[in-house]
Design a protein that fits this description.
The protein is 55% helix and 14% strand. With 428 residues, it is α+β, with helices and mostly antiparallel strands. A 3-stranded antiparallel beta sheet has the order 2-6-5. A 3-stranded antiparallel beta sheet has the order 8-10-9, sandwiched between helices. The longest helix has 39 residues. The N and C termini lie far apart (99 Å).
């Protein structure tokens, strides 16, 4: 028989499948809480035993009730086997079909030994053993809720977050009614929003670590047909990271609409390459949505957040990555070579200038006349006509011309003297 341990009370976390969370909320609040507690108490034997037995006292303790509530707890426990509900309404897990059934089969109470004996239907056993869509719920948190609407919405919100700090999820109005109230809810939207949604949002904010907002109401004509909820884990709203001057941070917040809190945390957790790659991927998907006239249904901030967190963007093949690296290396080598040549040229020109100033003035005039004849082109020629040799720019071009002639091995009066002096300086 499953028995509650002290450490379990401190860390009462139950694994629950999304298909079971996304079910018609026709059960009373206590029944839904009891189902989570039963999953928690038999977690070590789940899938190994067909029939389970738990202590009634353990259930009452986790329900935070006293012995006088045992009768009520038994009634709500039996409702799990007698109430037919619809599973997997949102169909988040595409590997499983949605359907109807009971949550327990059967559910028995031994009043003498104060034990509860029960089995889970085969579909629930199969779902709970599948780790792909686990949601982790804190039993101690659920005991604070007084409304079944809050319990239902809280479980859905936890499931939507997965490993993210923030998430958006949308449901049709009909799905929302079924998930929070059951099939028999026929209130007007105004009353449903006031009596159900607002009550759940307020209680979740007051009694859990989540902030949940009704982010958007999507309408067809004047009728609300779909609701978008924004879920944020509290405690992550302030971050020590200072990224206000970071270009990537600004792009995430201002261009893609990611909230400032989440943007800072993702910059701390993920490298720039992953973030940039997924932002580019998000932009591609958004352009496709615009092309297909679906931009109103495309939540840019939510998609970008999920893309970065789950790394949607395909990575470049290794071969392509190697080619890019080789190109970058070649470009870097060429850039270094150009820089070296530039420095060598500057050094050579400095040497020519210093030697030019030491040769005879007659030779200097001869070299300048040759520059006037062969070195003046385009704008430089026009500048020379306006300012002559008084221009620093003209002198600079002259020295460039002179250095090029010397390096090409030019012979003749003036060049011979410069070449001889260069050789003499190199020897010494």
């Amino acid at each position: 028989m499953a028995s509650l341990k002290i450490e379990d009370e401190i860390n009462a976390i139950v694994k629950k499948h999304k298909a079971i969370i996304n079910c018609e909320n026709s059960l009373p609040l206590a029944s839904r809480k009891i189902f989570n507690i039963l999953l928690f108490l038999v977690k070590d034997r789940f899938g190994k035993d067909i029939e389970h037995q738990v202590s009634e006292n353990d259930v009452i303790a986790l329900l935070n009730k006293t012995d006088k509530d045992i009768t009520s707890a038994r009634i709500n426990y039996k409702k799990l086997a007698s109430t037919v509900i619809e599973y997997n309404i949102l169909n988040n897990d595409r590997d499983h079909l949605s359907g109807v059934g009971t949550m327990l089969a059967p559910a028995e109470v031994n009043t003498t030994r104060k034990t509860w004996n029960f089995s889970f239907p085969p579909n629930i056993v199969k779902w709970v053993q599948d780790p792909k869509s686990f949601v982790f719920l804190d039993i101690t948190t659920q005991e604070r809720f007084c409304s079944k609407y809050s319990q239902a919405l809280w479980e859905i919100c936890i499931g939507s977050l997965e490993n993210q700090l923030e998430s958006y999820f949308s449901v049709t109005l009909d799905e929302c009614r079924m998930l929070m109230c059951g099939k028999n809810n026929h209130q007007t939207y105004k009353d449903f929003k006031r009596r159900v949604i607002s009550v759940a949002l307020s209680e979740i904010k007051d009694k859990s670590l989540l902030n949940v907002e009704l982010f958007k109401e999507i309408k067809e004509s004047r009728r609300v047909c779909e609701l978008v909820f924004l879920v944020t884990k509290r405690g992550y709203e302030q971050s020590a990271l200072s990224a206000s001057d970071d270009d990537l941070y600004i792009k995430m917040v201002d261009v893609f609409g990611i909230t400032t809190n989440v943007a800072r945390l993702m910059l701390e957790k993920y490298d720039d390459e992953r973030i940039s790659r997924n932002l580019e991927y998000t932009e591609q998907q958004y352009r496709k949505a615009i092309k297909n006239n679906r931009e109103k249904q495309f939540n840019l901030g939510a998609y970008a957040t999920s893309a970065i967190t789950k790394d949607y963007a395909p990575k470049q093949p290794q071969l392509m990555t190697n080619i890019i690296k080789e190109k970058e290396k070649t470009a870097a080598n060429e850039s270094n070579l150009i820089e070296l040549k530039k420095k060598a040229g500057e050094s050579s020109m400095k040497r020519v200038i210093s030697i030019f100033e030491t040769i005879d003035t007659t030779l200097q005039k001869m070299l300048k006349r040759e520059f006037e004849k062969n070195g003046l082109r385009g704008p430089i020629k026009k500048l020379f006509e306006q300012e002559g040799w008084k221009s620093d720019q003209i002198m600079n071009h002259f020295y460039i011309f002179l250095t090029a002639q010397v390096e090409q091995g030019r012979k003749g009066q003036g060049y011979d003297q410069i070449n001889n002096l260069i050789k003499t300086n190199l020897i010494h």
